[in-house]
Amino acid sequence: MAASCRFLVRFNTLQKCILSVNANAECSISSALGGIRHKSTISQSEQHQYDLVIVGGGIVGAATAQELITRHPNLKLAILEKEKELAAHQSGHNSGVIHAGIYYVPGTLKARLCVKGMEMAYKYCDKHQIPYKKCGKLIVAVEPEELPRLDVLMERGLKNGVKDIRMVGPDAIKEIEPNCVALKAIHSPHTGIIDWGLVTKHYGKEFEKRGGNIYTNYEVDTFLTKAESKEGSIQGLTHNVEIHGSNPANPVVSCRYVVTCGGLHSDRLAEKSGCNPEPKIVPFRGEYLLLAPEKCNMVNGNIYPVPDPRFPFLGVHFTPRMDGSVWLGPNAVLAFKREGYGYTQFSLSDFVDAVSFRGLRKLAVKHLGYGIQEMYKSIYINAQVKQLQKFVPSLKLEDVRRGPAGVRAQALDRDGKLVDDFVFDSGSVDMSSRVLHVRNAPSPAATSSLAIAEMVADRVEQQFQL
Ligand SMILES: Cc1cc2nc3c(=O)[nH]c(=O)nc-3n(C[C@H](O)[C@H](O)[C@H](O)COP(=O)(O)OP(=O)(O)OC[C@H]3O[C@@H](n4cnc5c(N)ncnc54)[C@H](O)[C@@H]3O)c2cc1C
């Protein structure tokens, strides 16, 4: 948007900008990994000058950074992340499932990237000794009217090339999950569990090993562009984008190209470079319940219901965690703050921003009943337990307590339609030849992260002619 994107057109202005950072001053770039600090005595303007900057240190940003630096070891790359460490939001607050790719409409990016991403994730974790468990998954139908929908899922899974899935009846279900009762289920033996936050930090570590820099506590506030020189080679004029942080202590970072992977803020980051504010991100909190430690042997693997096809959420499920605990959930309620993990976390500006958006109002009118049900389940956890008892009848209310929450970045268009697949945007303004925004990286983007990174890197190479 023009208001946030000023143009510096005169070379002397550019010089001033570069010199406004103390020459030869000592500068620290905090590492996301354990607070190590790298020290350097080169000039600040040079030190904070990059070929390409990735904004957002979630799993998509970190995987993309790792892929790009592996392909282009001679380029200087950095990640800018507003929190004190990587994976502070969606990538560190999720179900921790390695999805196999059953649900997604065949041919969509979501379907292709998930199936490929799962294979890549297992290989990567084996190579780097990142722990995971291939504990499998059942998608269970408990009511006769769910059976046709289960068949549709099976068909999709087979079309998507998901390996070794099979339809099982009540006896086989009992063998796999002795406490589960259902009419029929899809069994996916290769579905697994992992700590996606740990994986994100590993991507970051590999990126740093290959020479990339990670700036944490750096919230990108403004993108500025400088006029292109005709030759494009006059000292300084090749690094045409200037990035300013919201904290005056943040150094000015200049670069040739920018990729943003901003998760819950992806629409705002796109708007800052002059792109359309839509699709808009609306935050939906997903709250989990925790199974009492002595009940954690109630399930062996993941147990999911047949999802409601009107929504992109997979339904309240049982998910074992890498630490031996079991999470139940999540539900989906509107969050009052983009990164609001509890009811008490409220941001007036985020709230007004969401409810004044025509797309959200349209969605609310269309699905008012569903929204109220989800709110009810969020307040009265026995409603959520009842849902889970449909397939694990031995679960009791006293077996559970409230647990953590995650917030999903749900992209929404102005007609209230949930945007279900990936959205890339560069806009059509002055910065468009220099910026690529990943505006929607929906679940299962953690599972798909390495495949998404390949796709984003291909796009970057094509668009920026790297
Ligand atoms: C409740 C829940 C359960 C899920 N379960 C699964 C699952 O089991 N399996 C699976 O594969 N996927 C799952 N997902 C989806 C998956 O977690 C996300 O799709 C994925 O983490 C998205 O990664 P990201 O990098 O796009 O976003 P994020 O992880 O949100 O990262 C975006 C980053 O950008 C930073 N940022 C934003 N604005 C700025 C700025 N101005 N300056 C600097 N930095 C900025 C943020 O601080 C953040 O770190 C789940 C998601 C949720 C919410």
UniProtKB/TrEMBL annotation:
Name of the top EC class for this enzyme: oxidoreductase
InterPro entries: FAD-dep_OxRdtase, FAD/NAD-bd_sf
Catalyzed chemical reaction(s): (S)-2-hydroxyglutarate + A = 2-oxoglutarate + AH2
Enzyme Commission designation: 1.1.99.2
Record-annotated FAD dependent oxidoreductase domain positions: 51-459
SUPFAM superfamilies in alphabetical order: FAD/NAD(P)-binding domain
Cofactor(s) essential for the protein: FAD
Top-level division of the source organism's lineage: Eukaryota
Keyword tags: FAD, Flavoprotein, Oxidoreductase
Record-linked Gene3D superfamilies: D-Amino Acid Oxidase, subunit A, domain 2 (3.30.9.10), FAD/NAD(P)-binding domain (3.50.50.60)
One GO molecular-function entry: (S)-2-hydroxyglutarate dehydrogenase activity
PANTHER family (UniProt xref): L-2-HYDROXYGLUTARATE DEHYDROGENASE, MITOCHONDRIAL (PTHR43104:SF2)
Recorded family membership: Belongs to the L2HGDH family.
NCBIfam families for the chain: PRK11728.1 (NF008726)
Protein name, as recorded: L-2-hydroxyglutarate dehydrogenase, mitochondrial
Organism: Biomphalaria glabrata
